[in-house]
Amino acid sequence: MSTSWKTCWFGTLVVSLLVIASNLSAADARFTATQICKAGIAVVMGRDPGAMKVDRVEKDVIFLSYVRPDDRKRWAYKCKLEGQKILWGADEGRWRTHPADSVITFDAGTTSLTVVERFSDRSSTKKTFTVQQLGK
Fold it and tell me: N or C: which end of the chain has fewer CB within 10 A?
């Protein structure tokens, strides 16, 4: 009787841990790297993330672009994630990682993604996006 109780208890524990782990994985995967990059570039450039298009992905680098509506000029960027930081640069330019460059971070919440751009003078810009605003 005690062996079957232990087996049942262990089985329940394993199932509970699997459910918790799958919920954590789902929470971590609410926002994709593409969505986070769209949000980051949108904050930096003051644009609608819905206008951002993914041109290509090479390893961990996402290449994005958008067309500015007023003059139809195409602007292209590269982006990658490093922990909670969003690293970016012009698609053919340098990564914006110089100490004088702004630092862009993100925080993925339950239903929203918040991006903060901090400048060297300690001022900042903060914007929060929903999954719907960021598209796929």
Answer: N
